[in-house]
Amino acid sequence: MKTNHLNLTFSSIAENVSITRVLIASVGAQLDLALNDIEELKVAVSEAVSNAIIHGYQSNPNHIVYFDLDIADDSLKIVVKDDGCGITNIEQAMQPAYSTDPERMGLGFVFMQSFMDDLQVESTLEVGTTVTMIKHLKQIPISSH
Amino acid sequence: MNLEKSIERLTLLLRLDGELDMHTASKVRQAIDVEIEKRGIRTVILNLQDVRFVDSSGLGVIIGRYKKLLPLGGNLKITNVPPHIYKIMELSGLPKIIKFYVDEAQAYEEGRGA
Q1: How far is B88 from A135, CA to CA, in rounded Å?
Q2: CA-CA distance, A51 to B73, in Å (whole number)?
Q3: Which helix (H) or strand (E) holds B105?
């Protein structure tokens, strides 16, 4: 697989979440990932982008979400960034069942963590949040170790 | 997301077709809440056979309707869940809270007799 880079910036509206899922599913298919892995990537991306819109921008549609994909030989890196309000306490926000909204289950970060090999969250109040997720790609098995 | 509604006495059957995320969740929320409030619906059966995607926003709307119905003496039932959707639901712990049925007939059947 050649290295590849994709970058999408889009308005912070709910309709755009499904567009990022279409994009990650196409990339996953090009990488020959199993259908199950593609489903998981779609959920992880959906959570990160939804968080940026709902929490980062507090559902205000007049902002921009940044979505970056970096495809290397051995990994797929997904970066979702917003210039929103930031997270007061990242550790607390990443706890299962932590949600600022009773309608939500507080599972966004749980799904991201479960479905990706690595998850990093950087956030500064009133500056924004960057979520970086990495999925390791299996090399063509000449020798895996 | 397409919604097909049918109402029989105090039971609302909703067949969902599409992807259940933060965008479509609000449509589903409104569709159910309006029937609870205006018609006094107490049992909601969600047929998820044609749901192709769900994330935590989608699960949130389901658990939210369940929490709304419970204090009203109502119930929410889920039927026809595709396997890949069930996997996400299982990870969330939803099947421990909400009852799943193979099909609509089974969901209707329970609670109708005795």
Answers
A1: 18
A2: 33
A3: helix B104-109
114 residues of chain B, pLDDT tens digit each: 999 999 999 999 999 999 999 999 999 999 999 999 999 999 999 999 999 999 999 999 999 999 999 999 999 999 999 999 999 999 999 999 999 999 999 999 987 654
Strand order in the sheet with B99-101: B2-8, B11-20, B43-54, B75-79, B99-101
pTM of the model as a whole: 0.93
From A50, A104, A114, residue closest to B21, measured CB to CB: A50
CA angle A91, B22, B106 (to 5 degrees): 105
- Secondary structure class of B52 (helix, strand, coil): strand
In one letter, which amino acid is B32?
A: I
The interface pTM score, or ipTM, of the predicted complex is 0.93
Residues of A in contact with B88 (CB under 8 A): 43, 111
Q: For residues B17, B20, B25 and B29, what is the CA-based torsion angle, rounded to 10 degrees?
A: 50
Output the six-digit token pair for A132. 């970086």
Q: Quick check: B53 and A46 CB within 8 A?
A: yes
- Token pair of B34 as six digits: 């309006």
Q: Would the CB atoms of B53 and A21 count as touching at under 8 Å?
A: yes
Across the interface, which of A35, A53, A111 has its CB nearest the CB of B56? Answer: A111
